[in-house]
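Write out the bound-state structure for flavin mononucleotide.
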Amino acid sequence: MTSRTQDPRPAGADVPGSVEEAITSRKSARAFLPTPVPRETVEQVLALAARSPSATNTQPWRVYVAMGKVRDALAFDLCAAFDDPDFPQEPGYAFYPDPMPEPYLSRRRDLGWKLYGLLGIDRGDPEARHKQHGRNFRFFDAPVGLFFTVERCMERGSWLDIGMFMQTAMLAARGMGLHTCPQAVFVPYHKVIRKHLPIPDTEVMACGMSLGYADPAKIENTLVSPRDPVTGFASFLGC
Ligand SMILES: Cc1cc2nc3c(=O)[nH]c(=O)nc-3n(C[C@H](O)[C@H](O)[C@H](O)COP(=O)(O)O)c2cc1C
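---
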């Protein structure tokens, strides 16, 4: 699914052969290889993502790409903020309801225990959990960090467009043998991110994302997140 002449992919990087395969092989990777991703490849991913639909073609997405020294300095400051128990986290927007209702609470817990279970992290070991959670802020060692913002003045409709943009970016990345991890974990740390990236105050940080080549040897990348069957969420009428 790629026409690039200079192929930066590491040997053995899997490339899906169809849209269906791109969809089914997409997963949130949480361990990346140090293999660099050229700026042109990221631009290609974003150009494909920009083919996403948006209501009345408003294209309300903004993307900030952190690579190289910018990415490294940002990761350093984010890790320091995460490790500081007094760091004033600032959720830019409400992500989940509080309290989280069922069945969502159970699904969230199940995902967490599956991941920690794979990594051999005990439920009663908050230090090990903190360390693993902290890997988010190092972009799970991916060479590219993406940040998606939306203008504060836009309403919820535009957030649908941002979500579609992100999903298209993730599938486009798959088409090039890359993997991603969408990350809302960055949102309460947006002030740290704003120190490194020129995000105006008129834009809300919607989500972050790690992008790179997944490390196939890492056990966390074998995690298969479950899904409800179609009959669990779809209602068919008139058939
Ligand atoms: C908006 C959004 C935010 C997410 N934030 C995080 C995050 O901060 N850290 C993380 O490790 N995974 C994050 N994820 C990944 C989800 O945990 C993952 O998509 C879900 O468990 C399904 O697994 P899959 O992506 O491997 O199919 C996020 C996903 C989405 C869509």
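---
The radius of gyration is 18 Å.
Residues 27-28, 30, 111, 136, 181-185, 207, 225 surround flavin mononucleotide (CB under 6 Å).
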